[in-house]
Amino acid sequence: MEKREELYRGKAKSVYTTDDADRLILLFRNDTSAFDGKRIEQLDRKGMVNNKFNAFIMQKLEEAGIPTQFDKLLGDNECLVKKLEMIPVECVVRNYAAGSLVKRLGIEEGTKLNPYTFELFLKDDAKGDPFINESHVVAFGWGTAEQLVRMKELSLKVNEVLSKLFDDAGLLLVDFKLEFGVFHGQIVLGDEFSPDGCRLWDKETRKKMDKDRFRQGLGDVIEAYEEVAKRLGVPL
Ligand code: ADP
Ligand code: UDP
Hints:
Blueprint: E1 3-9, E2 13-18, E3 23-28, E4 31-34, E5 39-42, H1 46-63, E6 70-73, E7 78-82, E8 85-96, H2 99-105, E9 112-122, E10 131-132, H3 134-139, H4 145-168, E11 171-183, E12 186-190, E13 198-202, H5 212-215, H6 221-232
Antiparallel strand pairs: 1-2, 2-3, 3-7, 4-5, 6-7, 8-9, 8-11, 9-10, 11-12, 11-13
Helix pairs in contact: 1-6
Bound molecules: adenosine-5'-diphosphate and uridine-5'-diphosphate.
């Protein structure tokens, strides 16, 4: 697979075209951002850890019947993926209250949500990734009603599979964000699944093991990511 030019440089990853029009290379950088890109720092090893973590999770999801972009790892910081036409909507599933839900509704952090919640945000940093609902997605043409049904169905299936996987590793899957795209007419899971885009707490102590360590200045960010990887058995 030949890497061609940089198609897009995001906050944490760079996307490259390849000699196959249906495939892209994702390069996971060490850049770590918070607050819609207003704060950016370099964290040693982060690109490698997230690339391998994402590969491990995407393969688990594929095995569970969830269609993903993932093809194969290409090295420490790169993987080969299907080129999706991305839907500019972030799907967030929550099992416990944290983050923007706590701020928005004043729910106490850590409250168990029963059932889980499913939320949508527009992927638009300039607008601060605003909270939206399903009718906005259809009315503004970001996705169709059928695509939304499938995105929700797949998000809930991901929650089922990963809640169990993390539980077995002594971790609570508090919440997570997914992005989907279209590949040959089908909705497919894209972007990444890593501690950058989810919240993971130790089951016993509720210690934060995800990007909140960076957002909240708690320190030992990558050490926590590596601990999660170790507990899951991700080869680093
Ligand atoms: P951001 O755009 O939020 O700064 P990243 O730094 O992670 O995020 O950049 C990766 C970009 O690549 C995102 O815009 C994401 O939507 C896009 N992307 C991820 N996976 C795919 C894929 N399989 N096909 C096309 N685009 C993708
Ligand atoms: N999230 C993300 N990218 C975003 C916004 C949120 O990966 O642009 C993830 C975040 O890490 C958390 C979940 O989505 O796991 C829910 O985030 P929340 O709405 O609480 O927003 P936050 O306060 O974290 O910005």
